[in-house]
Each structure stands twice: as structure tokens, then as C-alpha cells.
Amino acid sequence: MALELGGVLEYVQVFLNSRELILATSIALILLGNIHAIRERVPGYVARVAGFLLLVLIPDSVSPFSRLLLLSGVSVAAFLTLYTPKYSRAKYGSPSLIPLVDLFALSILAVFASSRLIELITFWLVAELLGFFLIAYDYLVKADRGALLAAVKYLLFSMIPTDISLFIILALTGFSDAVHLQLREIAPDLTSPLVTALVLLGFFSKAAVFPLHFWLPDAHSIAPSPASVLLSGIMVKMGIYGIYLVGSYPLSRDTALSMMFLSSSLTAIYGGLQAAVQSDIKRLLAYSTMSHTAAMVLLLSLYIPSGDPVFIDAATIYAVAHVFFKSSLFMDSGFIEILTGERNLGKLGYVYLYAPAESLVAMVSVLSMFGMPPAVGFLAKVATFASISHYLKYSWLYVLALLVISVEVALSVVYSVKYVRAHIEVEVKPGDASLDRKAIELIPYVAGLVAVSIGFTFAIGTVYEGFYSELKVVREVFPVLAIALLVLVLLAFYLLELLRRTREAGEG
Questions:
Q1: How many CA atoms within 13 Å lie on the side-chain side of 120?
Q2: What is the Cα–Cα distance from 240 to 218, expressed in whole angstroms?
Q3: Do 411 and 275 contact (CB within 8 A), yes or no?
Q4: CB 110 within 8 A of CB 23
Q5: Is 6 inside any structural domain?
Q6: Domain residue limits at 355
Q7: Is the backbone peptide bond immediately before 374 cis, with ω within 30 degrees of 0?
Q8: Distance from chain centroid for Cα 19
Q9: Under a CB-based contact definition with an 8 Å cutoff, are residues 446 and 361 in contact?
Q10: Domain assignment present for 8
């Protein structure tokens, strides 16, 4: 009897220290915070934020790649759960969007926290299903057929191909191993060129890489902005994570290299060119996501011939940077949409007159998107160019990769500057534009996420001790870079105020 009791107590102790308990508690807190009576009150906010932050404590990450995606994703989800109630009330007149967004965020984060294949597949399927309903949300509440068409396109060209890839891996792994073995312990045999191609195509579709890329612009631009934050900021990283996992399995290396390199190169340039000519701010951001995710796949492809984990490190830093700046920019696009009721760049340009603080926050995110220090995007640029440049002497492949990344970065500057014009365009006059001042309530959450991203810059700079000397130099000059950013922000604030006063004087 005593032995049986001891065994039960030992099991309870293991369970209490387990990742399953943390995940279960997190789910319970998020569901509790979504009870209608407290959903828009302080207890509801606290419960949901605590539920997301609790995910940070989950142990036994598969890799630094998944761990950093989990940490950055938790940061986004914590601010987004505060942002969504204000957005939902302002745009739809009800808080009905909140539980969908929270559960969507939770399921995506659970994918990165999964330690077994069966967990990963389960949460992956749940995330995809919730993503479908969020893309179709405007059809459900407004009968917008465009939203339904975008959701169906997402279903056909993102969900189904990825699910095929997952079930191929499950079939080759075996159900027993999928349940009992850690993700890092399984090794499905993908050495057949056909199997390698099929599995990669599925994950390409989730990352919106050619040839299954065309679903993304409609889905990410039509979905409500909180959903766009998760779709573009975090969910596409599921595809990148899938490609990363496949790269650790036995596979046809030649097939994988040729597919990943060619598809990512084409998509990186195509996405950047499309973003540069868009007039809708959300479509601009959506196409830029295609370009950035393709750059991550390009970095992962270079790991195949080199075997150097520096390319995985660079892709990881790039992915984390993209989580932050793309999430904050989609939150900003939601702010603009609520404030002005407009998304067309040709009809904007006056946001800074009414919300200079939000314009400053957006400028910092834009600086991160094209890699200005000390934003996390700067670390991504340094890591990317440093990793490739060390191999230029070994093969023309790295020279071509450097050219592709250079074009991608140049295009990012073009469309980043174009996005800023939504906030600041001196020649544009607001006229009789009707403004919804409720949008001002969204600013603290966007600003908070941007502030956390700057903190991540310093954290990542100290985590990667084994990286090349370029990152070590960057880490040493962080204080100078921080001062430079502060001066830049103060100067920008001064210029915004000067422009605002000049405009008011002219109109007076």
C-alpha cells in the first residue's frame, strides 16, 4: 500500500513539474479570461496575459530555433490580447473577435512548444482551422464574399498541402514513435526525391514560398488586423519551422537544395517587387512577408551544402526579427484603419497630425524592417550577410545568394519608405476625413511590443556566443547604438511636431 501511494505521489510530482501541466494551466487561464463577464475587464486581461506568459516556462524545447520563436511569439500574443478588445469594439461593435484570436495564438505557440510529433500535428491542425475562420471572419459577420474566397484559397493552397506533408512524416515515423519519441529523436526516411519534394512543397505553402505562395496576399490583407498579426507575424514561421525540421531528417539533399534555393530566390525578389507597387497598406505588408520568409528559406537552403549551423542561426535571428517588426506593423495598420477608415496610401499621409506617437512607433518598426541599428532587424541583416560572406570563396551559390539577399534588402527599403507615407506625406491634406478617436487606445500596445523587440535585440546579441566576430562587435557597441536610436527618435519627434505645427499654421 505504501509503495503504491509512493508511486502515485511520484507520478503526481512528475506531472506537476511537467510541460503538460504548464500548457494545461495556460489554456485554462486563457479560456477563463475569455468568459464574457470579464473578457473586457482587468481580471480577464490579467488572466489572458498570464496564460500566454506561462508558456515561457515550458521546458525541453526541440531547439533554439523553436525556443526563440516561442519566446517572441509569446511577446506578441501578450500585447495582442490587450489590443484585440479595443480593435474588435471599434471595428465590429462587439468583443467576438477576442476568443478566436487568443485561441489562434495559443495553438500556434503550442506548435513551437511541442516536444512530440503527435503534439505538433494536433496543434498545427487546430491552428490551421482557427486561421480559416479568422480569414473568413468578415464573411461571418458582414457577408463579405471576398473574405470567404480568401479563406477557401487558404484552405486549398496552404492548409491541405501542409497537412499532406505532416501526414507523410507521420506515416514514415509510425504512430507509436510519434506518440512516445521526442521530435529530436525521430528520423523519418525522406531520401526518395519524390518524398522530399512533396514534403517540402507542403511546408513551402505554409511559408508562402513559390509555387504555392499566391494565397497569402488576400488572406493576410482581408483578415482582421489582429488575425493578420498572427498570420503574417507568427503562423508563416510554422512553415519555416517545418522546413527546419525536415532539414534534420534523412532526405534527398540535391532535391532539397535545388527546390529551396530556386523557390526562395524567386519569391524573395517577387514579393519585394510586388510590395513596392502596392497602394493598400495591408497588401504591402503581406507581400513583404513573402519576401522575408523566402529569405529565411534561402538561408536554410545554404545549410545543406555547407553543414554550418551559422545559417540556421541567421535564419533564426531573421525569423525572430520578422515576428516583431511585422506584428507591430500589422497592429499599426489596424490603428490606421480604425482611425481613418482608410487603407489606400494615396488617401493617407496625415496620421502624424493626430497621432504623432503612433507615427514614431511605426517609424521604429520600419527601421527594423530594413535593418537599422539597434533594432532587431539590424541583427538579422548582420547575421545574414555575415553568414553568407564567409562562404563566398567556396562556391558561386553563395555569391548568387548574396545578390538575392542584397536585392531583397534594397526592395525592403523601397516599400518601407512607402509605408511611412501612410503616416507622413507633407503634401496630403486630411480635408474632411472623419476620424475615430478610439484608435488612440491602441497605441500603448503597439509601442509596448516595439519596446520589447528592442530588448530582444540585446538578449539575442548575448545568446549567440558561438557566432562569427561580426555579431560580437555589434554586441560591444550596443550602448552606442542605443544612444543613436534615442537621438533618432527624439529628432523624429521634433520633426513631427514641427510639421504638425506648420500644417496647423498653414490651415489657420
A1: 29
A2: 20
A3: yes
A4: yes
A5: no
A6: 26-507
A7: yes
A8: 24
A9: yes
A10: no
Which is it for the CA torsion 337, 339, 340, 341, positive or negative? positive
Residue 427: predicted pLDDT: 63
Q: Is 507 exposed, middle or buried (0-12, 13-18, 19+ CB in 10 A)?
A: exposed
Look at residue 47 and tell me if it is in a domain.
yes
Whether the Cβ atoms of residue 337 and residue 226 lie closer than 8 Å to each other: no
468 within 8 A of 389, measured Cβ to Cβ: no
User: What are the grid coordinates assigned to 487, written together?
Assistant: 537621438
- 116 forms bridges with which residues in the sheet? 182
Bridge-partner residues for 344, per DSSP?
A: 280
425-433 long-range Cβ contacts below 8 angstroms, 24+ apart: 425/348, 425/349, 425/350, 426/349, 426/499, 427/349, 428/348, 428/349, 428/350, 429/350, 429/507, 430/350, 430/353, 433/340, 433/341, 433/342, 433/350
Of 435, 425, 436, whose CA–CA distance to 350 is shortest?
A: 425
| pLDDT of 465 strictly over 80 | no
CB neighbours (10 Å) of residue 254? Answer: 12
Domain count of the chain?
1
**Residue 466: DSSP 8-state:** T
User: Cell for 185?
Assistant: 529523436
Q: Phi/psi at 183 (nearest 5 deg)?
A: -55, -35
Q: Of 90, 86, 124, 92, whose CA–CA distance to 107 is shortest?
A: 124
22 SS3 class? helix
pLDDT in tens, 124-150: 999 999 999 999 999 999 878 999 999
Contact 371, 377 (CB under 8 A): yes
Q: b/e for 331-365, b at 16 or more Cβ within 10 A? A: bbbbbbbbbbebbebebbbbbbbbbbebbbbbbbb
pLDDT tens for residues 270-312? Answer: 999 999 999 999 999 999 999 999 999 999 999 999 888 889 9
Query: Is residue 239 a part of any domain in this protein?
Result: yes
